[in-house]
Amino acid sequence: MPYVHRLRRRVGGRYASSCFYVRRMRPAGAGGLGIPRYHQLDTHSCGFLAALAVVRHFAPKTGADDVLRVVAPSPASGCDQRHLIRCLKRFGVAAVYRERLGPRSLHRLAAAGTPVIVTVWPEWYGCDHWTVVRGLDRAGRVFLTNYNWLTRNGSMDWKDFLDIWEPRGVGLVCGPAPR
């Protein structure tokens, strides 16, 4: 098993934490992003890991501690969308809410180097879960980060992805913030 990162920092009078590991696998043939596969080992830091994946995509030397201090996920409720967008902006990343995303638009965005943060909600989860689309391939597979029920190469079938994508067709399209 890869090195497990256990981060715990005091932020604004409380503690923020995350426990995760990283696999550096690029989606093969996915025309995808070089974002590694982060794996969350706690119950609350998916927003932090989505932010970390996107921030490091644009600024690879950004420290995980720096992102944790800004996102500061709550152990009770993680991180909501409005907070995630504000946090990304502090790192120079614009996250634009978009609807009607589908396989063509996600493939085109990944091929252009644009990550998209989405939420998934499998029926056995108690709440929604942040993940980042790393790419799509021609065989109809979606490559994600920080979702445990993927194949060995970090992908799942498009139809299975549609079953858990909630709200379906919605995502945060991320790019460098205008100056």
Structural features, described:
The protein is an alpha+beta fold and 179 residues long. The chain has one domain (4-176): Alpha-Beta Complex (Cathepsin B, Chain A), CATH 3.90.70. It has helices at residues 46-58, 64-71, 81-90, 103-111, 158-164; strands at 4-11, 14-23, 37-40, 93-98, 116-120, 129-136, 141-145, 155-157, 171-176. The strands form 2 sheets. A 6-stranded antiparallel sheet has the order 4-9-5-6-7-8. A 3-stranded antiparallel sheet has the order 1-2-3, with helices on one face. A hairpin with a 4-residue loop joins strand 6 and strand 7 (141-145). Helix 1 packs across helix 2. The longest helix is centred in the first third of the chain and has 13 residues, at 46-58. The mean pLDDT is 90.
Give the helices and strands, then pairings.
Elements: E1 4-11, E2 14-23, E3 37-40, H1 46-58, H2 64-71, H3 81-90, E4 93-98, H4 103-111, E5 116-120, E6 129-136, E7 141-145, E8 155-157, H5 158-164, E9 171-176
Antiparallel strand pairs: 1-2, 2-3, 4-9, 5-6, 5-9, 6-7, 7-8
Short description:
This protein is 26% helix and 31% strand. It is α+β, with helices and mostly antiparallel strands and 179 residues long.
Main attributes?
179 residues; alpha+beta; Cathepsin B, Chain A; six-stranded antiparallel β-sheet; three-stranded antiparallel β-sheet; 31% strand; globular
> Could you give me the name of the CATH homologous superfamily?
Cysteine proteinases
SSE arrangement, N to C: EEEHHHEHEEEEHE
Helix content: 25-40%
**Radius of gyration of CA atoms, rounded to a whole number:** 15 Å
Largest sheet: 6 strands, antiparallel
CATH class assignment: Alpha Beta
Q: Which strand order does the major sheet show?
A: 4-9-5-6-7-8
Low-confidence stretches: none
Separate helix tally = 5
Our count of domains comes out at 1
Euclidean distance between termini CA atoms? 41 Å
* CATH fold node name: Cathepsin B, Chain A
Shape verdict: globular
* Oligomeric state of the chains in view: single chain
Structural class by sheet pairing and helices: alpha+beta
The CATH architecture? Alpha-Beta Complex
Strand content: 25-35%
Mean pLDDT across the residues is 90
